[in-house]
Amino acid sequence: MRTTVRDPQNLLFGVFLILLGAGGVYFGARLDMGSALDMGPGYMPTILSGAILAMGVGFTLFSFVHAGAAISNVAWRGLVVVLSVVVLFGLSIKWLGLMVTIVISVMLSALATPNRSWMQTAIFAIVLAAACVLVFNVALNLPLPVWPR
Amino acid sequence: MTELLDHLAIGFSLALSLENLFYCFTGALIGTLIGVLPGIGPLATVALLLPITFTLEPVSSLIMLSGIYYGAQYGGSTTAILVNLPGEASAVVTTLDGHQMARQGRAGPALAIAALASFFAGTVATIMIATLALPLAGVALRFGPADYAGLMIFGLIGAVVLASGSLPKAIAMVFVGLLLGLIGIDINSGAMRYTFGLPPLTDGINFVALAVGLFGLGEIIRNLEGSGQPSVLSGKIGRLMPSWSEIKQSFPAAVRGTFVGSLLGVLPGGGATLGSFASYALEKKVARDPSRFGTGAIEGVAGPEAANNAGAQGSFIPMLTLGIPANAVMALIIGALTIQGIQPGPRVMQAEPELVWGLIASMWLGNLMLLVINLPLIGLWVRLLKVPYRLMFPAIIIFCAVGAFTINNSTFDIYMTALFGLLGYFFLKVGAEAAPLILGFVLGPLLEENVRRALIFSRGDPMTFLDNPICAVFLALSALLLLMMAVPHLRRGRREAFREE
To answer: Which positions ≥6 away from B251 have C-beta within 8 Å?
Structure first.
């Protein structure tokens, strides 16, 4: 009998749990377990990781038995663009300041949607940057660098 | 009774201060503003706006956060009626009849009835919170560590059983949350747990990064899947005032919805969603002609709207009195208070009554403000719905990043937000709800601490959890809930309760 994946959602979730649980057990091994009377720092993490690992195995095995919905319609483009924008924001905020960072972020975000007009996006980026400085720096008084240093 | 009035007097004197009125109003306004945006529910809204409340006093920030919460809840209903796009599960039922009414040119009365029913429910729920808060907190003060551990387990199990979505996945997500909550320095031994030598992880995962990533970024990415702009109703809203017969039809529905909503809201996992579904089902049952539902029956708007508002406020009860989040939004609020140095629970009610009573009073004021914000300003919200998403989402991303950054002025938290954004989208794609994870994350350290203390008291004897009557009852109830879900018939019932038709 051929075994096939019948529930890709459960399979992926199960694999995620296995990785997390195994990592938790492995990296938790160097922590002191202690005993039930005197729980060490490793006691709860190890129990939880073990349970997560077991559940992961369960989801994975179950995905070969029971049919479920497929994973469809993944927004790869949106995923990559959104995460890159956030990381780029982190890389540049302390260095380039809020104004420039926001303009770059908005321009880059435009790549996530198909129809774009660069002129409109650029104007919007500058307006948004100015509004953010007003809201965050002036109104809320947050300590954010505004200009590049 | 006089004691209650005294407390309410303290609360109103605090809530009516110019400063707190301002925060209550701003919270409700911004909450509505973000909540109106299609695809962004109350959970994402509260997560997004958490950081801006951290610079405030604890009372003010709590008042503003709850304003944001019910503002977002209401904003979601507006979107549900006008665009047929529910911001989150609790607004799903509102789309059924509300949007039909809008298509028949009765958007005005639908919006007005939704607002009035919510206000009525909010008033009743506020009174309920005020009367229940003290006695419940009194009971909770007598709890020992084992009882607390039992209560938390009951809360977690109840939350996953009553929430929508796959039950096994929800349980797994609770465990993931519990584990993530333990990252950082162990307060008892000083040992570093899963910090991988990264100094920013010493204090644990930044709560804002986790919440904003999972709910904010995850949602944004999912919204980018779609083919673009949702179609906003182009016709006009029509007259706002409902007719006398519409009011007469709605009022009993709103009363029933309030009752169902407050009852279910207090339960773990209850909150707004369950109440609105239950109320819709009830309205269909008691209606003389159930076939009208789904074609624009006004009771189908009034009941669920009352129920979701009552439920949203009812969920504050376990948070304020026991320190236990009934749903993910309450978990966010607990997280926010913890950052402010306040651990919600029965002791807060004693030590800082102003905080609790100020919040309760401001809830009612906030509901009143929502009426003012929503009805006359409806034209503004409609225009906001027409802003293209491609301009909207970069602004939201920037909000997420700024929010994560400003907590500790640390870029590390921004990278963590991106990581949790990835995870959040992954969870959406594999059908695992992230809400139970946040509950586990908030309760993880508390649960560990109480289990540890209970075991020290009992000299390591795990039977202490069963010998202790209060704890034993909680554990038995948890087991019962899980067993009930194992019965196929009841499991089907749970699935049906969350289906729209």
So the answer is: B302
State which residues form the domain around B482.
Answer: 2-225+245-497
State whether B430 and A132 contact (CB < 8 Å).
no
Q: Which residues of A touch B171 (CB under 8 A)?
A: 55
* Residue B298 in domain: yes
CB-based contact B301:B113 (threshold 8 Å): yes
- Report the alpha-carbon distance of residue B245 to residue A121 in Å, rounded: 49
For range B460-487, the mean pLDDT? 83
Chain A hits for B426, Cβ within 8 Å: 12, 16
**Residue contact A110–B225, C-beta within 8 A:** no
Q: How many residues does chain B have?
A: 501
Which of chain A's residues have a Cβ under 8 Å away from the Cβ of B204? Answer: none
Which pLDDT band, with edges at 50, 70 and 90, does A49 fall under? very high
Say which DSSP state A148 is in. Answer: -
**Closest residue in A to B454 (Cα–Cα):** A37
Q: Is residue B35 part of a domain?
A: yes
What b/e string do you get for B407-433 counting C-beta neighbours within 10 Å, with b at 16 or more? Answer: beebbbbbbbbbbbbbbbbbbbbbbbb
- Compute how many other C-beta atoms are within 10 angstroms of the C-beta atom of residue A75: 19
3-state DSSP helix/strand/coil % of chain A, to nearest 5: 70, 0, 30
Q: Does the pLDDT of residue A52 top 90, yes or no?
A: yes
Q: Is residue B196 part of a domain?
A: yes
Q: Is B476 domain-assigned?
A: yes
Contact residues on chain B for A89, CB-CB shorter than 8 A: 397-398, 401, 405, 414
Residue B487's region, left for phi above 0, alpha for psi from -120 to 50, else beta, is: beta
Closest CA to B438 of B195, B163, B215: B215
d(CA A123, CA B128): 50
pLDDT in tens, A84-125: 999 999 999 888 888 899 999 998 888 887 766 788 888 888
CB proximity under 8 Å: B 398-427 to A: 398, 400-402, 405-406, 409, 411, 414-415, 417-418, 421-422, 425-426
The 3-state secondary structure of B297-326, one letter per residue: CCHHHHHHHHHHHHHHHHCHHHHHHHCCCC
Contact B455 A41 (CB under 8 A): no
Number of domains in chain B: 1
Percent share of chain B, pLDDT over 70:
90
**pTM score of the predicted model:** 0.83
| Nearest CB partner across the interface for B402, out of A10, A24, A136 | A136
Q: Between chains, do B414 and A109 touch, taking CB under 8 Å as contact? A: no
Whether chain A has a CB inside 8 Å of the CB on B390: the answer is yes
Which residues lie closer than 8 Å to B318 by C-beta, 6 or more apart? B155, B266, B268, B324, B325, B326, B330
